[in-house]
Amino acid sequence: MIIAVSSPDGKFSTEFSPRFGRCNFFIIIDTDTREWESKPNPAANARGGAGPQAVQFLSASGAEAAITGRYGPNAFTTLKAAGIRAYIADAGTPEELLDRFLAGTLEEVNAATGGELHH
Predict the structure, then answer these.
(1) What is the dihedral of CA 27, 32, 35, 40, to 10 degrees?
(2) Are 89 and 61 in contact (CB under 8 A)?
(3) What is d(CA 108, CA 67) in angstroms, rounded to the nearest whole number?
(4) What distance in Å separates the CA atoms of residue 33 and residue 70, rounded to the nearest whole number?
(5) For the CA atoms of the chain, what is the radius of gyration?
(6) Which among 52, 56, 78, 106 is least buried, having the fewest CB atoms inside 10 angstroms?
(7) Per-residue CA distances from 102 to 2, 30, 52, 97 (Å)
(8) Per residue in 50-62, pLDDT tens?
(9) Which domains does the chain have, with CATH numbers?
């Protein structure tokens, strides 16, 4: 499975970003091989609609699940439409979150976890 973790700096060993649509990077991880790559989030500085734009980017990157700190209503609706599963975390590096995902200990959410945020 391909998962995406929001990141402030694109590094595998630093704390993830709790922001989804406006995070600076996404860490794209293949859960079978643990291989990963860092991709800049093209929606980070969007004037509006950053969540849905980030989802489109993740969908084009092959992501099947996303891990972040919160999902606004527009981002969550777009994730659901794209068939990307949504997980939340309160702390951890992408590496730690991968381990928690594989262990089945991350919370999957079925609704937005916060209101709309603007830059």
Answers:
(1) -20
(2) no
(3) 9
(4) 27
(5) 12
(6) 56
(7) 12, 11, 26, 8
(8) 999 999 999 999 9
(9) 2-109 (3.30.420.130)
pTM of this structure = 0.94
Q: For residue 114, what are its two tokens? A: 């916060």
Report the run of H or E that residue 78 belongs to, with start and end.
helix 73-82
- Express each pLDDT in 72-119 by its tens digit: 999 999 999 999 999 999 999 999 999 999 999 999 999 888 765 554
pLDDT, tens digit, 9 for 90 and up, residues 10-45: 999 999 999 999 999 999 999 999 999 999 999 999
Pairing mode of beta strands 65-68, 85-88: parallel
Partnered with residue 3 across adjacent β-strands are 29, 65
Write out the two tokens for 37.
Answer: 């790559």
Cβ–Cβ under 8 Å, residues 55 and 78: yes
